[in-house]
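2024-03-11 09:14:02 DEBUG pipeline.ingest accepted 1 chain
2024-03-11 09:14:02 DEBUG pipeline.ingest length=217
2024-03-11 09:14:03 DEBUG pipeline.predict start
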Amino acid sequence: KGKEGVLSLPAAMHGWHANFIPQQDAEACGFCHPSSPSSATQCSRGVHNSAGITCVDCHGTLSEHALALLKAESHKEGAARLMKNLKPVTVASVDDINPRTPWLNEPKCTNCHKDYEKPAENASGYNTWTTGAHELYRLSTDKSGIRCEACHGSPHAVYPTNNIYGENTDNIQPMQYHGTPFSIGSNKTCNTCHTNTVKGDYHHANMYRQVRFLAKE
């Protein structure tokens, strides 16, 4: 819970730095997080990164990220001082920013992938948060109780990934089980797991379809 009346580390850390770092794109995130394209690990290396989607498309700019955290703790000393000079970019005003608790309220996949479809142009994952730990991507499950990560990979390395140290370094699981770098069961490869014939959208809506066309298909 931390010390009573003191800002949480995420709120204080992002709130402080947002007042001094002028960048409002993913470069700001890369100053501290290993998400920069020039970093050793490139922690953001999934299919979203390959599509040009960056940190700010889901988490908001540094200022917006800080404001959402600070608004949730606005009753604490220091919050108003850190918020005073921060301006949002994605939304019209600070009043439009929904407060969030770090680690529990995160962007939801369905903010962009409505009905599990391809996102609309200029879709944004910012400002609609999971309501608790049970909705976090890494803990979420499909209708059968299988976690999303089991088929799609980890949050910032969703299949197919693009790892600078090897084309399929992070795609080992799907490459091993169905010979492609795409999510387990994608492109109607239900027999990757099922020994009987399976058809339909059992795990989640709109899954039983050809979503990525491979060579000669």
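2024-03-11 09:14:41 DEBUG pipeline.report The chain is about 25% helix and 0% strand.
2024-03-11 09:14:41 DEBUG pipeline.predict end
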